[in-house]
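Training component of the fellowship. As part of building independent skills, the fellow (R.M.) carried out the full modelling exercise for a liganded target. The chosen ligand was 2-acetamido-2-deoxy-beta-D-glucopyranose. The inputs are recorded below so that the supervisory panel can assess the work.
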Amino acid sequence: MRSLLLEAFVASLLLATSVEAQTPAFQGELLLQTVLNNGKCLTASSNTNGAAVTLQGCTGAAAQKWTFTGTTVTVFGNKCLDVTDGNNSDGTKLQIWTCSANNANQQWQYSVWDNTLKWTNKNKCMDVTGGVQSDGNRIQVWTCSYKNPNQFWNAGYMVNALPAQSQNGQYGTNNCGTGSSQTSKCQTVWINAADDFCLWAPPTPGAIGDTEQIEVAWCTKSGRGTRTIPNGALKGVHFVKTPDYVQVTGVGDFTKINVPKGDSGGELDNRGADGRGNPIGGLVYGNSFGTGQQYHEWTSFISDGEFCFRACVGPKATSLCNHIYDVMGCYWNMPANYNAGTFENCVGDDALPMGVYGTSTWYQGTKPTPAAHPAPASSGCKTLPTVSVSPALRRRESGFERRYEDPAFPGATPAP
Ligand SMILES: *[C@@H]1O[C@H](CO)[C@@H](O)[C@H](O)[C@H]1NC(C)=O
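Fellow's submitted model of the complex:
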């Protein structure tokens, strides 16, 4: 607990100094997706000057690969995201134009804290015109407004084009291949079902609070380049899909995945104290709301004996995956079934947003600490006898045929 409290203190200091971050935490050529996580990406309609910037289904084409270089956002190497004629009126459409030094129409500032892309010095934000999510809808600038879903842009990657490392200073890798290894440094996790999910845990034994920046993926499925959770470590697993998130909760013996006995654990999420996330460069994918879809908002706790992991989509993602309550643990943040001896897949209702009680919001450290919300209702639960390591079905993620024939073995399947 001590390290968690210290972390919260350090986090508050860092927060104060890092709000000026001007680019996404992620590096390289990025997809810019709308808040709805509906597979719509910012797209240049061609590579000529004056080409409209629109929404299109994400394909990972060159026209959707945006690179943040200082204060500009470039595509096709030398074209910049540009406010047409520099017109400062709400509703001015965006275009691409050849980049030129210090061109005021091409200056942008991305905030990792509220995921907005702001036209520098103008208080105008990149905005989905009319909130219309159809292909071809042009993108505009509009006066920035707090938590406006039309102005919220996630930065990420196609699952089939993951970079070796998504962030500077990253311990491991995101492009993990199709094998499995208990020394893997893979930092790409999946959350699909009670028998298909991963946890963040240390690469070598060490308290979560001391290793949070370097946690690696430990999964129930082999074949995604990660480590596998040794059979017998999971004692109970409860997966639920709700309208706005997937969540897995449960108990086990996580000394088997390098969490020291007695460690009360800690919290991992997509922002971390400095906007880079814990682990740094950690990416989360799943198939529940779309095949191979990236979850941009997620929160997870693990200790020596329990875990919880929630990954959110849609306009409620930041409130339902709020990760500011980092000393409050699983039961308070994600009230749910944690029972040992049951392995199940359910559907359920959204939980109430953590920390929100009617019209008031509680902040960690304020006395008194309010009770956890009740666990939301779930239904249609299908139980599994247990959860042990088995091969990932590749087809659902990438269109490939199944690579492995036989499930059920202790430990990992080597790469073919
Ligand atoms: C800026 O855009 C507004 C709204 O479209 C338009 O009325 C105005 O004439 C434009 N200003 C300039 C200088 O082009």
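The panel noted the following from the submitted structure. The CA atoms of residues 244 and 316 lie 7 Å apart. The first strand starts at residue 29 and ends at 34.
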